[in-house]
Each structure stands twice: as C-alpha cells, then as structure tokens.
C-alpha cells in the first residue's frame, strides 16, 4: 500500500490516505455530479486527517453521508459514509497532487438511484 498526502486548495485541511487508489469512481447523484469530484472509497483506518479539523464544514446527504469542505477555500475534501452498518471514507482524488487523474478510468457509481 502507498501513502498519499492531500489537501484543500489553501492548505488549511490536510490528510494522508494509505491505499493503492486503483479503483476511482464518479458518483452520478445530483450532489456529486455538480461538484465533479473523482472519488475513491477507503476504510476509515486508511484515512488520517492531519490538519484542519476545526476548519471543516459539513453538508449532510440523506441519512448516510456527510460531505466535508474547507471553510476557507470551499474545496470538498472527503465524505464520511455510514451505510448498512459499514463506515468508510470517500476521498476526493483531486486533492492529491501526486496522482495523474487523466491516466485513471473511473467507474460510475449509481448514487442517483440509491434508496
């Protein structure tokens, strides 16, 4: 496994994620589609918020996810998901400079039809 460092645009929020990040997704729900993020689901233990906990703002989506944004620059950094008793983190891969997102082919996640 590889550890990647990421941050929002202004650097107020920073994180590490330890995962090979080989399965990117694009969610087609109305929220994700509008923000255009390429995401990757990781286990909660693979994500470490290093800086900026107090600089985050949350936006809830239905009853199973919270999207976290930097209060200063407005960048969506990650989403915490708790669905069917399983917790995970959806990392915004656009926040990780070391990745070449143009070389990745994301799978579409059908979030638009979740009940």
Describe the model.
By secondary structure, this protein is mainly beta. It has one domain (3-109): Metal Binding Protein, Guanine Nucleotide Exchange Factor, Chain A (Beta Complex). It is built from one helix and ten strands. It has one helix spanning 30-35; strands spanning 3-7, 14-18, 25-27, 39-42, 47-51, 56-61, 65-70, 76-83, 86-92, 107-109. A five-stranded antiparallel beta sheet has the order 4-9-8-7-6, with no helix packed on it. Strand 7 and strand 8 form a beta hairpin. The N and C termini lie far apart (33 Å). The mean pLDDT is 91.
Q: Rough shape?
A: globular
Q: Which ranges are low-confidence, i.e. pLDDT below 50, for 5 or more consecutive residues?
A: none
By CATH, the topology is Metal Binding Protein, Guanine Nucleotide Exchange Factor, Chain A
Count of separate DSSP helical elements: 1
What class do helices, strands and sheet pairing give? mainly beta
Determine Rg (CA atoms, Å).
13 Å
**CATH level-1 class:** Mainly Beta
* Succession of helices and strands: EEEHEEEEEEE
Strand order of the biggest β-sheet: 4-9-8-7-6
Biggest β-sheet: count, sense, barrel? 5 strands, antiparallel
For the secondary structure, the number of strands is 10
Strand content: over 45%
Which percent bin holds the helix content? under 10%
Distance between the termini: 33 Å
Task: List the topology elements.
Blueprint: E1 3-7, E2 14-18, E3 25-27, H1 30-35, E4 39-42, E5 47-51, E6 56-61, E7 65-70, E8 76-83, E9 86-92, E10 107-109
Parallel strand pairs: 3-10
Antiparallel strand pairs: 1-2, 2-5, 4-9, 6-7, 7-8, 8-9
């Amino acid at each position: 496994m590889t550890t990647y460092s990421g941050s929002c645009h202004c650097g107020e929020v920073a994180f590490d994620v330890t995962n090979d990040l080989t399965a990117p997704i694009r969610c087609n729900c109305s929220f994700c589609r509008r923000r255009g993020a390429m995401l990757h689901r990781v286990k909660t233990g693979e994500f470490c918020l290093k800086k900026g906990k107090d600089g985050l703002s949350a936006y809830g989506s239905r009853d199973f996810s919270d999207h976290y944004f930097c209060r200063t620059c407005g960048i969506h950094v990650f989403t915490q998901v708790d669905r069917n008793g399983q917790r995970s983190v959806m990392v915004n891969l656009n926040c990780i400079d070391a990745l070449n997102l143009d070389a990745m082919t994301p799978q579409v996640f059908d979030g638009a039809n979740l009940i």
